[in-house]
């Protein structure tokens, strides 16, 4: 059994508790022990970074330093948390002057950033630590090749030299369940989640363009690995009829929900009933 520090973040338990539940179930299926981190703050993504850069560095360095005390890597289900932790980790590993300055502040709490515990996305831990071959061996109810479009999210892939997450990781994880990955033109476009507090009209338009691109490419379902992105693409569909007179009915599932079903879990275990756009039609695509 491999142990990880679980940095759950703010958005997942509040907006997508089914993401949290399905992730925990999937982790248990593969003997991944996720230990909830205590006494940690919000990562501040993306607003704190823009307002108080040093404060953003400190709060994330503190989380990394707490993890360093355990020697276990950090995993998170949130792209924003992943990007903040990964960015600060990368910065402090490559900038000695800033690292020394931050550690002087952390010393007041008997903490020190050492960089021994690496920040990782839960999907990346599945890909590298469990592996595609092992995942395929454990599938008992593979999907029937149904088309699923992937929304990666801005913070998962950019900047590539910092996140070290490649699109192929998630593509192979989806295909391991028996599904087919649907390519669509706007796969790199933002979902609009971070724009929502600033300009709701633009945020809704971005979500609409994204869902429309997926649907027109032939996707039957969409998948995400970020609570903010999932909330945006799932919830905003309910308002598109009013804003644009359009109905897409494209169910958006977080990846652990799809994997959990393919592993033989039932719909309650993966929280399928909590999706805003009804997603129970995916059950029709599971093969016994």
Order of helices and strands: EHHEHHEHHEHHEHHHEHEHHEH
Strand order of the largest sheet: 2-1-3-4
The total tally of domains equals 2
What is the name of the CATH class of the largest domain?
Alpha Beta
How would you sum up the global shape?
A: globular
Task: Write down the overall mean pLDDT.
Answer: 96
Fraction of residues in helix: 40-55%
Strand content: 5-15%
Contiguous runs where pLDDT drops below 50 for at least 5 residues: none
Distance between the termini: 28 Å
**Biggest sheet record:** 4 strands, parallel
Please state the second-level CATH architecture of the largest domain: 3-Layer(aba) Sandwich
How many separate helices? 15
CATH-assigned fold name of the largest domain: Rossmann fold
Class by alpha and beta content? alpha/beta
Any idea what the radius of gyration is? 19 Å
Instruction: List how many beta strands DSSP finds.
Output: 8
Structure description:
The chain folds into two domains: 2-121, Glutathione S-transferase Yfyf (Class Pi), Chain A, domain 2, CATH 1.20.1050.140; 139-285, 3-Layer(aba) Sandwich (Rossmann fold), CATH 3.40.50.11810. The protein has 15 helices and eight strands. The protein has helices at 11-15, 17-29, 47-51, 53-68, 79-94, 96-106, 122-130, 132-138, 154-157, 160-163, 167-175, 200-216, 227-235, 237-244, 255-262; strands at 2-6, 32-36, 74-76, 119-121, 147-150, 180-182, 221-224, 252-254. The chain has a four-stranded parallel β-sheet with strand order 2-1-3-4. A four-stranded parallel β-sheet has the order 6-5-7-8, sandwiched between helices. Helix 12 (200-216) packs across helix 14 (237-244). The two termini are 28 Å apart.
